[in-house]
Design a protein that fits this description.
The complex is a heterodimer.
Chain A lengths: L2 H27 L3 H47 L2 H14 L12 H18 L28 H16 L3 H18 L4 H41 L1
Helix pairs in contact in A: 1-2, 1-4, 2-3, 2-7, 5-6, 5-7
Chain B lengths: L16 H13 L11 H34 L8 E7 L5 H10 L7 E5 L14 E5 L3 H8 L4 E6 L15 E7 L19 E4 L2 H14 L5 E4 L3 H11 L9 E4 L8 H5 L2 H7 L3 E4 L3 H6 L1 H8 L5 E2 L6 H6 L2 E4 L2 H11 L3 E4 L19 H4 L4 E4 L7 H9 L6 H9 L6 H15 L1
Parallel strand pairs in B: 1-2, 1-4, 2-3, 4-5, 5-6, 6-7, 8-9, 8-11, 9-10, 11-12, 12-13
Classes of the chains: A mainly alpha, B alpha/beta.
Chain lengths: 236, 429
């Protein structure tokens, strides 16, 4: 058994089993395959939401730490060169307990995302039930949608959501351009994917975008409410 | 359920390697940036970050290897004894900081080993009894020797321990830094004090600023002792042998050398303008004789002006009633030891490259002493004669000692204070 097979057996197979059970349950009650894919997408997201929120908090903490370090390194780079710059950056790494190989580590939240992505991909890519199944204007869920005179529409819908998400959640211009570049890359990579997979992925992205949006609104409301309470307490 | 094709055919027959490869790549290398619940462009930037990390790791690893090899090449057997109190003096100008400490160190504190990065000949001041002297080479080779010294305490005026080439020796128990001027940790280079065990602070400003930076960086806190400026002890003693009061105010013009010195920036004409109103002593920087020989000759040719070329500025400082300069070290000595005002000409210096980056909200030494040391911007330099007259018209008899008490620990007794503190450290080890 190769390492890839062991990893697959350990990480992907259990999740694929869960997705299969979930999808079978959905399809038994809702006989519409396209809608079942959408519901699978929403259900997976709902199931993973608490985990993602927990990981997002940890990720924010890590990012804050990393940004502080990078800001110090930028300051040093702006003023020093050569040997002096090298030693100062080394000391900044020491200050932030950073080792060069840390950049190669995979973080838990991304690992989860990758595993979920890979398992859903594996599951939907090898699902015979979708073959030849039409859904609405889509002729075959197992093939690219070809909705616009032979051009695939779903990859563009997914990309539009990716662009929207990049625009809203990547405040630094340089990083935003990188995100937009990757949105374009995803468009190319997934353009010829089966409609079922893109349907799943587009709704997955939509759900995540709406969840982040509602989380922002909630945070703002709570912050406003907190400020109002503080004002009342001050006045009394 | 609407079906257009028979079931049980695999969903896709086409080649899926791009996505599989991409997913595998992500799985192996990726690092988080955002936490959205899908593989999205944000994650893509994280992957780019990982690739950058990989390239940087290789780059840093390679550079580190070069510096390690360089250090190894300079490594040499030292053959020095196990030290009790090792004093490291990087340049002859710092000896005056160590003499008051060595002289005040009680015998029971143990022997002193004095390491200089230059040779000491008969022209140097003799070392106190019992102090062993070792000359080590300057630069990398000398630091390579220091980095493997064995002993209890190493005392130095060189900042940035464990940052650049000056490393902690595994066999030296305690590293101690002593200030050689009225510093505030504002214009020193990054990590100046962070890795010392003890800093003998010159005054509260330095002590508080080091604490502020310590909190920001989160390094282990150092022992910050209230010491003072040892070499001021001797300057004070010399100043006490007072010259007779002047019958007319004497202005000492003692700028730095190089392209930003007063003489380079404003020319020499202003000296004659000042001399038309006051008695003037000009003290050109000794380095000017070597680096700016033509200008130095012009200065020597001044009429109606006394040009002081003595080896030390002590006599000129004693005779003057006010100092005009562009460097702060001599200004602090003049103001706080001779208790007379000064004018400093210069722009405010940007601190982003220095430790002052973290002290932007803290009142600077320049601001605190502004009523006894007037800061004149180069744009206002045309009015220097008027400003000298203004400063000479003020009474500083109470203000300067009061300010000095605020800024300097153990004025006139810093050497014995440092010696006592070092003895205590030695006894604790």
């Amino acid at each position: 058994m190769s390492i890839v097979e062991i990893l697959k057996a350990l990480l992907l197979t259990p999740l694929i089993e869960i997705w299969a059970t979930l999808f079978d349950f959905i399809i038994r009650h809702i006989l519409d395959p396209g809608f079942a894919v959408i519901l699978l997408s929403v259900s997976v997201n709902i199931l993973l939401t608490p985990v993602y929120f927990q990981m997002e908090r940890a990720s924010q903490k890590r990012n804050k730490h990393r940004d502080a370090m990078l800001s110090e390194i930028d300051r040093i780079k702006a003023h020093y060169k050569g040997r002096e710059r090298y030693y100062y950056i080394k000391t900044i790494h020491r200050q932030f307990h950073h080792k060069n190989w840390h950049g190669l580590l995979i973080s838990p939240d991304l690992l989860l995302q990758v595993v979920v992505f890979a398992s859903v991909y594996q599951y939907l890519s090898h699902k015979p039930m979708m073959a030849g199944v039409a859904w609405g204007p889509i002729q075959n869920l197992a093939e690219p949608d070809k909705l616009l005179w032979g051009v695939n529409l779903l990859p563009f819908a997914m990309t539009a959501l990716n662009i929207l998400s990049s625009w809203k959640y990547t405040p630094i211009a340089k990083k935003r351009y990188v995100s937009l570049g990757f949105a374009a890359l995803f468009l190319v990579l997934l353009y010829n994917s089966p409609a079922a997979l893109l349907l799943y992925w587009t709704f997955n992205n939509l759900f995540s975008y709406l969840r982040n949006l509602s989380s922002d609104v909630l945070k703002k409301s709570l912050s406003k409410a907190g400020a109002a309470m503080a004002k009342i307490a001050e006045q009394s | 359920m609407k079906k257009n094709a028979p079931p049980n055919r695999p969903l896709r027959q086409r080649n899926t390697w791009p996505i599989d490869a991409f997913a595998a790549f992500v799985a192996i290398f990726a690092m988080s940036k955002t936490a959205h619940a899908y593989i999205d462009p944000g994650t893509g930037s994280a992957i780019l970050y990982v690739i950058t990390g990989l390239v940087l790791s290789i780059y840093f690893g390679f550079k580190n290897l070069i510096f390690k090899v360089e250090e190894l090449l300079y490594r040499k057997k030292t053959g020095f004894p196990v030290c009790n109190l090792a004093i490291h003096c990087e340049d002859p100008r710092y000896e005056n900081t160590f003499f008051p400490i060595m002289n005040a160190l009680p015998k029971d504190a143990g022997p002193v080993q004095f390491f200089t990065m230059y040779e000491r000949d008969a022209s140097f001041r003799p070392l106190p009894d019992g102090v062993q002297h070792f000359a080590i080479p300057p630069g990398l080779l000398g630091y390579s020797m220091l980095n493997r010294l064995e002993g209890k305490v190493l005392l130095t005026t060189t900042p940035q321990l464990d940052v650049m080439m000056f490393k902690r020796s595994k066999k030296m128990k305690h590293y101690c830094y002593v200030e050689h001027a009225l510093g505030e940790s504002r214009f020193v280079r990054p990590f100046a004090y962070d890795f010392y065990d003890t800093v003998l602070c010159c005054g509260p400003l330095l002590k508080n600023n080091i604490k502020t930076i310590e909190k920001i960086r989160g390094f282990n806190s150092k022992t910050l002792l209230e010491t003072g400026i040892p070499h001021w002890d001797e300057l004070l003693q010399a100043a006490a042998q007072n010259a007779p009061p002047n019958d007319a105010p004497v202005v000492l013009i003692a700028p730095s050398w190089g392209p930003s010195s007063l003489f380079e920036v404003f020319g020499l004409d202003f000296v004659e303008k000042v001399a038309a109103q006051f008695r003037v002593i000009v003290r050109p920087h000794p380095q000017m004789r070597i680096s700016q020989a033509a200008l130095y000759e012009q200065i020597l040719g001044f009429e109606n002006v006394h040009v002081d070329t003595e080896p030390t500025p002590a006599s000129a400082l004693q005779k003057a009633d006010i100092l005009v300069s562009d460097i702060s070290g001599i200004v602090d000595e003049f103001v706080f030891i001779h208790e007379k005002p000064a004018i400093v000409v210069g722009h405010s210096v940007a601190v982003d490259a220095f430790e002052g980056h973290f002290l932007k909200d803290v009142r600077s030494l320049r601001e605190i002493r502004s009523d006894v040391v007037m800061v004149l911007s180069p744009d206002d330099f045309g009015a220097v004669t008027t400003k000298i007259a203004q400063m000479l018209g003020k009474d500083f008899a109470k203000r300067i000692p009061a300010l000095r008490n605020e800024l300097v620990y153990n004025f006139g007794a810093a050497g014995p204070a440092a010696a006592h503190q070092i003895k205590e450290i030695l006894q604790c080890l």
